[in-house]
Each structure stands twice: as structure tokens, then as C-alpha cells.
Amino acid sequence: LPESYLTRLYFLDLDDEPQYNPRRRTVVPGKAQSQAPQWPCAIAMRMPVEGFGEVALYADNQGRGFTPVDFPLNLNRAFARDRIYRVETALATWRRAGYTFSGKITARLEQASVLLQQAEQTDSLPEQTRLWNDSLVESLWAGEESAIARAQQRIEQRSSRLDFRFGCNFFGHPGQGEKYDRHFRQLFNYATVPFYWSGFEPSPGQPQYGPVDEQVNWLRQAGIMPKGHPLIWFHEASVPEWIRGKPYGEVRSQLQRRVQDITRHYGSQIPVYDVINEAHEVPWSNELKLSPDQFLELTRIACDAARQGFPQVQRIVNSCCLWAENVAYFGPPQRSPYRYLQACLKADIPFEVIGIQLYYPDQDMFEIDRKLDRFIGLGKPIHITEMAASSQTGVDEQSQMGEAVGLWHGPWSETIQADWAEQIYTLAYSKPEIQAVTWWDFSDVGVFWPFGGLLNRDLQPKEAFYRLRSLLQRWQIPHTLDAVAPVSLP
Fold first, then answer.
1. Pick from 448, 476, 451: which is nearest to 464 by CA?
2. How many CB atoms lie within 10 A of CB 175?
3. What single-letter DSSP state applies at residue 242?
4. Where are the alpha helices (DSSP H) in 158-247?
5. What is the pLDDT of residues 253-271, one digit of tens each?
């Protein structure tokens, strides 16, 4: 592998938490030498797998973790061996729970093991490398197919979830016109409206309610539930100039006032909010240089103030970067969203819903399913608050992110985007703890994720739009929800 891949290799503990990367002594094509991590450790690295895509791969010594005696380590072999083990372990657990799996999945895993054995029987490194790659292809496909098969069986075993929220941000209204609105109504029963602080309140004490009022009125007339996003976010796109340089105490007071005012103004018209966004110390969302303790305090203030403004509010604590590679690459004081949420729960911060972002994350469906289940284990309902994948490769000049990234099954196309969307929604809908999924954005006009819309720039539906409509019909999800009363929570 080129050095650029090996420099992004990182270590994890056996709870899937990334460790801050120890210093790399040497990195040359094909080899990396590093100072020792904490033992025992697991290893993660994004790597191309010919015949599947380019995704993050994991090695953990079949669940035991690696210790010094396991090095030097051949990563190709370790990734192939441990992927078989991880999928076989999951299948054994799922079978004990009553799920069944096709002979095709079993055959894939058997073939993966055969290829691994063949690699052990040759001394030719190029031949071994090819065999390890081919073994990975079979086990990666087997993992994805088994995760989707389990999800489909869970859906078939349960009645339709009439309160499931099928959402998207509504930022293109009214600017993108009637065609945008018409297609939006055909697909969604839940819509996110914007409260980015700098644009919403360009001068202190002068909030601009008009544009959001117009969106909320249209949504309520259409029977679509509005959701607000974000009440607190410290990205440069949201922090107003007039708050920069203010002491922390004044920032805290202004945010408490802002959250109370907005939730009181809308009351039951907007029953749900992302009350705080990306507060787990990612470097791009800390314009005011806050400490972890200050982020935790502001999370509490946001949650308390939202309830004071509207007592029936649903409060979402929203996070990005579920795999937390930023912890490995940037180090303290950052923490993973999982550890941040654990801290919120330990501090008894009152909120109803965990929000997670899931833009195409360089992970296969088996690993995505595994990560969703980990967050479900925290014991609160979950909303996937932002999500997208690209519909073509290259640079999208209208996208905030620029170039389409990643490779899942093949180069991005409308069909690959539709496949990805259909599988993600199937995983999410199969889990009763996940109550909502929100796509981001609806069209490719001024899109965030490159070519990530469900409509193209001419506002014509892409294949993913029709695939999701088919899921709505199959699952019998209504096109409208009660736009006033929030959905009940367990």
C-alpha cells in the first residue's frame, strides 16, 4: 500500500474506542513501524479490496486483541482472518436468536476460509496477497448480506411502524420552487428547518423568524412534522461574529436565552430539535475553544432551556463521526461521540433522543449495523439526523464538500446510491429503537454532500428517490404525521 494509507492506520481498544495514534517511526510503501499502542489493541485501516470496494478493515486477533508477541504483523492476513471470525461470530449469535440465513452466505464464508488456507500453503507473497484479498471479498459480501437478511426478517416479523419518521432537510423551500415542494410531499413526513445562529440572529437580540415561519407554515399545512436544527453548534457556519471574543459566561447566557426564545416562540409547531450539535470536541466545531467540561455544561443548559421554552419538546443530542477516527488523528481533548454520550448520561443531562450522522462513512453494511447496535445499547431512542451518499464520482462544484469520496461496490452512480440508501433504510427501519431517518439534502442544488441529493439539479428524481418511495409503500408508512403532537417515546 502507498504511505498515504498506512499513515492513517490507527489502533483501538477492545471496546472499539480509537486510541490516539502513537508516533510512527517509519512509514514506507507496504510497511509501517510505530511506537507501541496500549495493549491489547485492535487495528483499523481503510484499504482497497478488489471486487468489493475501499472500506475500513478491522483486525483484533479474533476478539483477543494484539499484544507485543503478535508483531511484526501481516495486515493482509490479519484482516482476512478476523473478518471471517467477526462475521461467523455474529451469525452464530443471530441464529441462536432464531434468524435464518441462505446457503449463499454460508458458501461465501466457506470459500473465504478455503482461500485463507490456500494462502497459508504458498510461499509466494504476491499469490498470498491475491488470496487474502479474495478471501476478504467473500467475507465482506457475506457480512453485508447477513446483516440485511437479519434486518429483513425483523421487518417481516413486526407490524408496520406507523410513527416512523421519514425525513429530509427542507432548506430548498421556497427557493427551489413548486417542483421541489411537490416531490418533497411525495416522500417525507418529517422535515428539518434551519436555526444556524449567525444567519438566524445576525445582531444580538434580533432573531429573524420570518423565513423559518414560512417553512413551518407550509409543512404544517402539508401534514409534515417540522424539526429544528441546530440550536447550539460551534462551527464557523453557525457562530455569529458578535459572540466571538465574549467571555464564556456571556456565551452561556446568550445561548440559554436563544434556546428558550426559539422553543417558546414555536411551541408545539416544532416539537423536536437538535438542541446541540457536534459537542464531542471535533476540531471543526469548536470555534470558541471550549473545553470538554464546558461542552458538557452547555449540553445541559441547552436541554434545560429547551424544556423551559416548551415543556413537551423532544430534545436530540446530535453527534457526527461515529467511528471517531478524529480521536486517533487529533488526540486529546477530543472524545468519541459514544464517550460523550456516556458522559451526558452519567451526568444525568435530560434529553430524549440520541442523534447520529451517517454520511457515507467508508464502512460496509455489516460494520454500520454493528455500530448502530452499539449506540442502541446506550438505552435511548435514536434518530439518524443527517445522511447521504453520492450519485456520481468527481467534483461537485455546488457541494460544500467538493469531491465525491469513497468506493462502495463500484464507482458512485445513481444505482449505487440507490442500493446504499435502500440498505441503510432497511437496517434502520428494522431496529425499533431507531425512530427517524433524515436524508441531507433533497436536491443537488446547493447540496452539502457531493451529488448527494435525491433530486438532480433539474429537480428530477434520481433512482434512490423511487427506491425509497417503494420502501414507504412496502412498509406502509403514512406520508403525513401529526404535525403538532410529538410521537410518544418509550
1. 451
2. 10
3. G
4. 177-187, 197-200, 210-222
5. 999 999 999 999 999 999 9
